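Table 4 source record.
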Amino acid sequence: MEDLKMEQKIDLDLRTILVIVMVITSLSVIFQNLLMQTALIFVSIILLLLINPGKKKFTRIMHRLKNILKIVLTLMVFQILFRQEGEIFWQWKIIKITSSGLNYGIISSLRFFLIIIISGLLIDISFDKYLLALRGWKISYEISFIIASVIHFIPLFSKQFRLSMEALSLREININDLPLRKRPKAYLSLLFPIIARAMQTVKYRAISMELRGFRLFPDRTYLYKKKLRWFDYCIQFGIILSFGLILCFYYLV
């Protein structure tokens, strides 16, 4: 009950949340500096606390951050070692750690963490809500279906992968116990069936929409049609205005 009450504090339209996510990720790509990446992560955490404050959501986000930590650290090491520009902080033979490599390595790592955190705003949003939100922006049914399917494919793939790993653990098979050279082959043997099952789910979803008369008429009716409220308009306007002002200040001042 507490989670339910917390989740009802701020009930934003999905279009407003999508605008927030697009602006934050755009700023993360445009600005290649440590201060902006740190500020965006801080803002994303605050938004997550205000918009999606459920314990299950935070648990899933922390689990994702934990899973991606090794990949992020590996990429950071490669960025640090292979970028040779800038002031040299440390050198051993041909291996150098420079200011440019360190800067790019930290910024890239923070950007990965930002994407995981900000994606928490889109967790547990149903497929139908995505379709309604995209149609509210006058995007065609076909494009709306493709975008919604792509957004839902990643959680679907993650779920199928987790189920496959659980099935292996029930048979007392642990991939982490295999020799390092055999692990890629083991993961590949899991990858293709998982992708096939995920694609099959998307296929059945498309068939169900066809059976409901998808694109049978030029337009369709809705039992529920969510409209933007005044605070959705205010937040979207404020976010877009802030985005424009930040860009103007950065490029003109």
